[in-house]
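Hi F.,

I've been meaning to write this up properly since the lab meeting, where we talked about keeping a consistent format for the predictions we share between groups. The idea is simple: the sequence comes first, exactly as it goes in, then the structure tokens exactly as they come out, then a line or two of notes. No screenshots and no reformatting. I'm using this chain as the first example so we have something concrete to point to.
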Amino acid sequence: ISEEEGRIAVGMHPAAPLDIADVYLALGKHIEARKILTRYVAEDHAPGHSAYVAKFVEDRGFPDLIARLRSTN
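Output, unedited:
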């Protein structure tokens, strides 16, 4: 089972890592948030979602991750 399948299997939506990163940030755990977001931006995303993810990581202080975003065509 992949990580994505695991998210869905436990009832989480596919973009759940964004929520989890927000929880880590609220707890002051920036390293853990970065790890989650680094893995998430490396996944394939629809173009519209890629724009959302780019704004998300920038707003949360990780603008360097934008360059790693993968978008499907």
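Notes:
The CA atoms of residues 31 and 64 lie 14 Å apart.
DSSP finds four helices and two strands in the chain.

If this format works for you, I'll send the rest the same way.

G.
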